[in-house]
Design a protein that fits this description.
The protein is α+β, with helices and mostly antiparallel strands and 409 residues long. The chain has 3 domains: 5-88, Integrase, DNA-binding domain (Double Stranded RNA Binding Domain, 2-Layer Sandwich); 97-176; 204-393, Intergrase catalytic core (hpI Integrase, Chain A, Orthogonal Bundle). Helix content is 46%, strand content 9%. It is built from 15 helices and 8 strands. It has helices at 10-14, 65-82, 97-112, 116-126, 140-152, 157-176, 204-234, 252-262, 266-269, 303-316, 330-340, 349-360, 365-372, 377-380, 388-396; strands at residues 5-6, 23-27, 33-37, 43-50, 53-60, 277-278, 283-286, 297-300. It starts with a strand and ends in a 13-residue tail after the last helix. Mean pLDDT is 84; it is low at 402-409.
């Protein structure tokens, strides 16, 4: 079926396997629409309205088959009416960064990137001084000066690198769509950062206080629910569902305990559904679309994680699809840390806590890397210093048995 026209279906698209060379799947329902399958396995929708003249519409599965057909028909209709569709016409040279973000990049990013809207907001916030500047006037020198000032104001190199990466990606699309001849930031190098960095994890005493604060919070929430129901009974109002003594007060305790026992990022935790969890086999799967690396992975569940999820699932009655259907837990998290008397500890540090405990328990770094979903071992090496005992034992093997070294002479 490759490079031939057929009425595409979702099953056909999902079943298309990567090959040594890229190939196309043409849709017979909308002539001109095709999917390009790359050797990496990436699948993108494209529309062709003239010989060797086409435009990328977006990635699959973010852009669905129906969505691609709708967009392709719009481009083909524009081409039939005007000869050259708006998507391929030369862009005004005076387009500003603000206009490009609002009218061109935001719609594409929202449809194709997990955090598309957030990325646009980030660019507009940190590069506000350049928003009304024409795209063609933005230079690498300007952004280098911007970075120098940011670093002098004690913004971390990591933050600057992420900011520049966001802008660079947007300008790459501007070049691809002919708003620019080339990306002016392509030559900018990332700022050097400390490869190890500061790893914040809980001490034994801090973890004990945090767990005690969680337990007390659940007791208080159950008591509050009971008092509220008594108040409702007195006034003839409908009662809320009771929370028994074996139930969590709300989502916070299971969320934190699962984070401590799996090392999942907050975004991964809040995107997991009950279908992603196998309590009998004791593992959960992180789907590729919600993993920072873009790759799916399986995370084993220890006994505490299984117990927490079993208890939480029973409490939810199995009606919810998402395990944690919640907003940002920032306020509840801050109050919990205050009650536990734990300072300078972010929610993301629960991930560091998981990894640090693993390394200190003797788990090798590559296994920790796989569990955390790091694409590169360099990210995991920040925890290497937490295993001095194992390093010392490895070096000691050079003189084990007293057969080598000056002491045996």
């Amino acid at each position: 079926m490759y490079n031939t026209r057929t009425t595409l279906t979702r099953a056909m698209i999902d079943g298309a396997k990567a090959q040594a060379k890229p190939y196309r799947l043409w849709d017979a329902r909308v002539p001109g629409l095709f999917m390009r399958v790359q050797p990496s396995g990436a699948k993108t929708w494209n529309v062709q309205w003239a010989r060797a003249t086409s435009k990328s519409l977006g990635r699959y599965p973010i852009l669905t088959l129906d969505g691609a057909r709708t967009q392709a028909l719009a481009v083909l209709s524009d081409a039939a009416t005007n000869g050259t569709p708006a998507a391929a016409r030369p862009k005004p040279t005076t387009t500003t960064l603000r206009t490009f973000l609002d009218t061109e990049y935001l719609p594409w990013a929202t449809a194709n990137l997990k955090w598309g809207a957030g990325t646009c907001s980030r660019i507009k916030s940190v590069f506000s001084e350049h928003l009304d500047r024409p795209l063609r006037e933005i230079t690498s020198w300007m952004i280098e000066r911007w970075r120098t000032r940011r670093l002098e104001s004690e913004v971390t190199p990591n933050t600057c690198n992420r900011d520049i990466a966001s802008l660079r990606s947007a300008l790459s699309k501007a070049a691809e769509w002919d708003f620019l001849q080339q990306n002016p930031l392509s030559a900018i190098k990332i700022a050097k950062v400390d490869a190890v960095g500061i790893v914040r994890f809980l001490s034994d005493d801090e973890e004990k206080r945090l767990r005690e604060a969680l337990a007390k919070r659940d007791v208080d929430l159950r008591s509050a629910r009971k008092r509220a129901n008594e108040w409702r009974v007195e006034r003839g109002k409908e009662q809320k569902r009771l929370i028994d003594n074996e139930s969590f007060g709300d989502h916070l305790t299971p969320l934190i305990l699962l984070a401590m026992n799996t090392g999942l990022r907050r975004g991964e935790l809040t995107s997991i559904t009950w279908a992603d969890i196998d309590l009998d086999a004791k593992y959960l799967s992180v789907r590729a679309g919600y993993a920072k690396s873009g790759k799916a992975r399986y995370v084993p569940l220890n006994s505490e994680a299984v117990a927490v999820l079993t208890r939480w699932k029973r409490q939810q009655c199995g009606d919810e699809m998402l395990i944690f259907n919640l907003a940002d837990p920032k306020t509840a998290w801050a109050r919990l840390l205050s009650a536990a008397q734990v300072e300078n500890f972010r929610f993301h540090d629960l991930r560091h806590h998981f990894a640090s405990r693993m390394v200190m328990a003797g788990v090798d770094l590559n296994t920790v890397r796989e569990l955390l979903g790091h694409a590169d071992l360099k990210m995991t090496l920040r925890y290497a210093h937490l295993a001095p005992k194992h390093k010392a034992e490895a070096v000691e093997r050079l003189v084990s048995g007293g057969t080598h070294g000056w002491q045996s002479q």
